[in-house]
Every structure is written in structure tokens, then in C-alpha cells.
Input
Amino acid sequence: MIWLVFFSFIAAGIALSLARAGLGPTTPDRVVGVDGTVTITIALMVLLASFFDRQIYLDVALVYAVLGFIGVLAVARYLERGV
Amino acid sequence: MSGRSGSTVSRGFLTFLALFGVWLALVGTLNWEELLIGGVLSAVAAALGYRYMIPVGVNFSLRKLAYLIAYIPVFFWEMIKANFDVAYRVLHPRMPIRPGIVLIKTGLSSDSGKLALANSITLTPGTLTMDVRGDSLLIHWINVKSEKTEEATEIIGGRFERFLRRVFS
Amino acid sequence: MRVFGEVLIGIGTAFLFLGGLGIFRLLDVYNRLQAGTKCTTLGAFSTIIGVGFVHPAWMLKAIVIGVFILLTNPISAHALARASYRNGIPLWEGSVVDRCREFEECSRLPKEGE
Output
């Protein structure tokens, strides 16, 4: 029951920031939306690890955190000076 | 990388300790095989990369470590306040924001000190570090209270800088 | 222990929702970054530490992930803010002050080096 509350909060958060990524008038707006989605997804993966009782999902979350960080930095670099 | 101010051995050893600590946290067990592999890998990585991990001239002392630990609760308290502040602004129907970009000065000279200050400012109420130029930081402030450099410096950075100046002096 | 962890998870997911709402509702890139970086950072940190409290054996790895998020999120926000300012994304028209304009090199893209 309590899991339903957690997951619906997270689903709403992901939906809103993905909507910003889709609507956003400028490119940085979309990147902000994707960055928010990445962070919320990391929390969702950790929560799923707890829900299914599988510790291996924590490693997935850690790798996703590293990849998301590098991805956002690369996009910011690209916006700043072009490739 | 000339400059021999921090001794090579102690810098390498500190890097080794940091890497080995991260390894232990990642594997989460105390099998002797894991410890052996981790020790060897950390030693190799520390020997190859200590000069990038710890810049020349950084000296450690227990007093600085104590200030760093005392800084953590201050930082978390400010961060929780920041979140309630942002939550209030987001949930309020008319969104009471008054954004702007202000300039503040910092007395910290080392790069790691400026990094810690900029990260702390980003995570605390309504402020976001945009750029660092020499000793001035450009801050995007969601609710500008003062446009003067000195007052903005005191309001935004004062609390952190008192601690960080002792840690990264 | 378990109840405390679940309370932390509840607070964290609520803040994650608020972060998503802030990203959706606020008015220009910089304000969106403010909400996005603060609320999602504390929300994710609180959720992850809460899971660590629910399963005490995972605490160490949870702390590693949480501290990683705590250290890297401000850096990506900073990089994004600087990139969008240099790209000429304007501030919201209700903004009161722009000290960045005093630096002439701030608003144009850098040529070589930095």
C-alpha cells in the first residue's frame, strides 16, 4: 500500500520532467528536463531494488548515475562550443 | 609537475587510502580475495595517478578534518531549508520569484576551496553558481535581496566561507 | 529502523515530485535548473538513504550512490547554466538584475582554450 504512494509520486515527477523535455522551447530546457528525469530514475532504481529485494539493482543505479552525469556534461560542453 | 612541497610518499599514500576506501564500499565484503585485488589495484592506480588526485601544496591536518566534519551538519541544515524554500515557491499559485544574476567575492584562493563553495551555494536556498572568474562568482539568485556585491556576499556565502576558509586555507 | 527508513523514502519521493513540478512549472531555464537541481538532489539522497535504513546490509553502497549524486548534481547544473547563458538564452523578463552583462566575454562563446 505504502509502495503505491511512493511509486505514484515518482511516476508523477518523471512524467512532469519528461513533459518539460518534450515541450521545452529551447534546447537547454530539454536538457534540464532529461537531467531531472535521470536523477529521479536513479532513485526509482534504488526503490525497485528494495521492492524486489535484489541487491544487483543498486549497481545498475550506480552505473546509471555515472553515465547520466557524463552525458549531461557532454551535452553542456556541446552547447557551449559546438562538438 | 615539479614542485616538491607535499612529499610524494604521503600524497601517494593518501590517494591509495581514498581509492581503497571506495573499493571497500563498492564490494561491501571482507573476503581476503577482494581485499587483495582491491589493494593491488588501488596501489597501481595511486602510483599512476596521485599527481592528478591531490594537487601539490595541499597539506592535511586533523584540525582541518575536524572542521570539515563540523561543516557537514551545517551544510545539510542549509540544504533542507533550501528545499522547503523551493517547494514553497513552486507550490504557491503565483510563484513569488524575483530572479537575477548577482556577483559575489570570495576570499578562498585554492581551486578545491572554490569548488566546495560553489557546490554548497548551488545546493542552498535559491542560489545557483553560474561561473567562476578569479575571485568572483556569478550567482543566479531566485529571489534577489540585494544587488550590491558586499551584501550579497554576506547573505549567500558568509555562512559557508567561515568554515571553508579554515578547511582549505 | 524500518519505519524510519520508510518515512525517509516518503519525504524523498515527495521532493522528487516537487522537483518534477518545478521543472515543469517555472518560467526560464535558470529557474527550472534551481528547482531541478535542489529538489531532485535532496529527494534522491533521502530516498536512497531511506532504502539503506530499510535494508541495513545495503547501507554502505547506498551511501556511495547518495554521496555521488550529492557531489555531481551541482556540477552538472553549473555546466548547464553556463552553457545556456553563453548560448544567449535570455533571462525571464521579470528578472531584476544581470551582473553577468558587465563581463563582455561572458555572453559570447569562447574561441580557443578557456
